[in-house]
Write a structure and sequence with these properties.
With 91 residues, this protein is mainly α. Helices cover 70% and strands 0% of the residues.
């Protein structure tokens, strides 16, 4: 869950590129950052640790708004994970 939360936070901060190739590079860059954190490869990180729907929401330019609208919960989850839970529930 933490890898998806890191990816969602990073993707939500980006303005989706103007072309499919630009967005693909952005997604690859985020996957690399998360992979470096996990000490894994970007391909494995993207396939196994990051929720695929986050990439779809980024492509559709809906992730930023959902991420910004998500509120923090008080049930012991870290803020980033709480936001991710809210975004995934809305997806």
């Amino acid at each position: 869950m933490h890898a998806s939360a890191l990816a969602a936070d990073a993707l939500a901060r980006l303005e989706p590129g103007p072309s499919a190739a630009a967005r693909k590079r952005q997604v690859a860059g985020v996957a690399k950052v998360v992979a470096d954190f996990l000490r894994n490869t970007p391909a494995i990180t993207r396939k196994s640790y990051i929720a695929p729907c986050l990439f779809d929401m980024f492509e559709k330019a809906t992730l930023s708004a959902l991420w910004a609208a998500a509120t923090e919960r008080q049930d012991g989850l870290r803020a980033r994970e709480a936001r991710l839970a809210a975004v995934l529930a809305a997806a």
